[in-house]
Amino acid sequence: MSKQFDQALTVGDPKRLLLFGAVAEAGSLGAAAREIGWSQPALSQHMSALEKDLGVSLFDRTPRGIVLTTAGQLALIRASEVAASVTGLRRDLATAFGLGGRNVRLAGFPSFVIGPLAGALGTLETSAADHPDTVTRHSYEVVEAEPPEALTLLENGAIDVAFVFHHEDEDPPHLDNASTIDLGEDRLDLLVPERWNRAGQIHTLADVAELPWIMGCERCRSTAERLCRRAGFEPRTRHITDNPGAIQALVSNSLGVALLPQSARRTTAVDGIAAISIAEVGTRRISALVPTELDTAPEITDLLDALRTLSLGGRDRQE
């Protein structure tokens, strides 16, 4: 083995150096954990392991975040070089060979994966099977990831396409050297047990201010809480789950109300629920982020075209 590689391997897992770079840029372990979609304890363990491997302290913890030591400042320079090298290699390979027939790596949030993305991939597979002489069969790999984690995976070169969402009152996601492609709107419905709305009396968020709430993932929960506060009340959260089917099961059993995007009900619609469209709730936009050097690759454009032919919205909608 080359002496250069042998010495490098004694440092430990190179991924820890990239994680350290994320912590240094974020200014605290908590902020970095939120940005990359990790738990803070797991990230802290990796930082402790990196410091042990290097034999130095990389930063001091303070009430306001972290302060890099001299060793940490040097390590950050090298971490930036490693990140640039990894993304540069990916860019060089894409420029020279395109995707080269390999699997296209996709990351998307759960409700998008089980709904529109699964439908689009199925459409492509069926088309390739029915027309083998004229339609190219592409290969895809899918992982579930909430938007912050998906963006980090894309930035680090671990995936080729990140499917993300943002509420209409938020700024669209952005990454340098990546194209942001809008795939359309995904309306949010207020889900209430049918027996709680038999008289059709629920028309606004304020009408459910006294009812218990079922909240989803961290970003969805943040949006729901913001909308409720805008309507003049603090939601009383009773249950938390990021599983669309579980949210609907809880609602149908009269255990609370929830906000859920229509796309999440494409394949998991549950009986006993009134899905009410409320103007003040608004919509969220779904986007695909693709490295600029790949945004014209046929594997990517064929998938995006298939997604555009699908309705992102769900069903059983009550005006």
TrEMBL record:
One Pfam family per UniProt: LysR_substrate
Gene Ontology cellular-component terms listed: protein-DNA complex
Organism placement in taxonomy: Bacteria, Bacillati, Actinomycetota, Actinomycetes, Micrococcales
Keywords associated with the record: DNA-binding, Transcription, Transcription regulation
Protein name: LysR family transcriptional regulator
Domain of life: Bacteria
Boundaries of every HTH lysR-type domain copy: 13-69
Listed PANTHER family: LYSR SUBSTRATE-BINDING (PTHR30346:SF29), TRANSCRIPTIONAL DUAL REGULATOR HCAR-RELATED (PTHR30346)
Any one Gene Ontology molecular-function term assigned to this protein's record: DNA-binding transcription factor activity
Family of this protein: Belongs to the LysR transcriptional regulatory family.
